[in-house]
Amino acid sequence: MSLIEQKFARLATDNAPGQEVRQRGDGLDALLKGDVLPGTPVDFSHGDVNENAFAPTPGSLEAFVAGVESGGEQAYTEYRGRADLRMQVAEHLARFTGSPVSGADELIITPGTQGALFLSIASTVAPGDKVAIVRPDYFANRKLVEFIGGEIVPIEMDYLNHADRAGLDLDQLEAAFKAGVKTFLFSNPNNPAGVVYSKDEIGQIAALANRYGATVIVDQLYSRLRYPGVEYTHLRAAGIDPGNVITIMGPSKTESLSGYRLGVAFGAPKLLDRMEKLQAIVSLRAPGYCQAVLRTWFEEPEGYMQERIGQHQAIRDDLLQVLRAVDGVAARTPEAGSYLFPRLPRLTVAPQDFVRILRRQAGVTVTPGTEFSPDAGDSIRLNFSQNRAAALHAIERTAELVRRYRA
């Protein structure tokens, strides 16, 4: 296999949201036990943005139409995004994070937070650079660093055995910095586990980054969907050198605006300059008409976000109750976001086969844990931003199959 073939082989997309339908069922029939379980199919690999679940926030379609009607001035914005929109978004983000944001030179609008993630990593990592990545964490982190040619240094997060913090191994992180790591990449709230880093953990990350001159990229995509009583500390407001931090956010999850492909990155001007240059040759800009939808971000009707958080909390608790009734299942209660990351008991089939069996026999699609860490083969990730009744029935079928295939 050539080097370029090897490079792209590591970017496997078989288990990415929406890609499962492309998988083959070779050899699965011989593993099946029992009958198919009836019920409405549910795809837990991504959130349901339809009207019967979590539709996009009010006014988003109208804002998009207004953008279309404004014509060329909206279609052909600056590469960083339309200036007046950047100023508006920067004001909201400054208030939300507790630290100033300049819309002129510290913020860029990107094609989704995925675009922001790619630009951030590509603007800070060169081939051969050591990059610290949490395990488990968002699956694209590893793939993007490998594609660019960086060397991954894993940092473990023992999320199941801690209730008061994420469980990041800070000694391991410091050792990584001492060994030459100059970039640290993590999500907070964590995707897939839904845990939130404690104030002490964030403070120590900031202190370590300052001590060793490291750049930190923090993905805060779910930081608005936090459950009652959860304390959240924004890294950029925790004393970190502002020249060494990039924060990524966007309206695709909590606000169900994923179809508009909008994200933002904000932080050090020198890094944002690089990101703009890269975006100019990758996509030119975030979709011009769609950028107008950002006018609705942080502008939702009064009480809207509290209601949406409450709805997600109710589904979360429903699903946890069913899962915890299954012997051998371990699941920490997510403190934010819409992901569950339960660890399953030992099964009579391989974990990757169980994921396929689950889809075949129960109509339930989940993401295998190995997407988020090579050590998480016994876990699955579920996005519970779904219709509540459908999600509950789907998790009941999942629980029944876990019992059926338990070793």
Please describe what this structure looks like.
The chain is an alpha/beta fold. The protein has two domains: 3-55 and 303-405, Aspartate Aminotransferase, domain 1 (Alpha-Beta Complex), CATH 3.90.1150; 60-296, 3-Layer(aba) Sandwich (Aspartate Aminotransferase, domain 2), CATH 3.40.640. The chain is 37% helix and 12% strand. The protein contains 13 helices and twelve strands. It has helices at residues 3-9, 60-70, 72-75, 83-97, 112-122, 139-148, 170-178, 199-212, 269-282, 288-291, 304-323, 351-362, 388-405; strands at residues 42-43, 107-111, 130-135, 151-156, 183-187, 215-219, 245-249, 262-267, 339-340, 364-365, 367-368, 380-383. The protein has a seven-stranded mixed beta sheet, with helices on both faces. It has a three-stranded antiparallel beta sheet with strand order 9-12-11, with helices on one face. Helix 5 (112-122) packs across helix 9 (269-282) and helix 7 packs parallel to helix 8 (199-212). The longest helix has 20 residues, at 304-323. It is globular, with a radius of gyration of 21 Å. The mean pLDDT is 96. It comes from Achromobacter veterisilvae. Its cofactor is pyridoxal 5'-phosphate. Residues 49-395 form the Aminotransferase class I/classII large domain.
Give the SSE layout.
Blueprint: H1 3-9, E1 42-43, H2 60-70, H3 72-75, H4 83-97, E2 107-111, H5 112-122, E3 130-135, H6 139-148, E4 151-156, H7 170-178, E5 183-187, H8 199-212, E6 215-219, E7 245-249, E8 262-267, H9 269-282, H10 288-291, H11 304-323, E9 339-340, H12 351-362, E10 364-365, E11 367-368, E12 380-383, H13 388-405
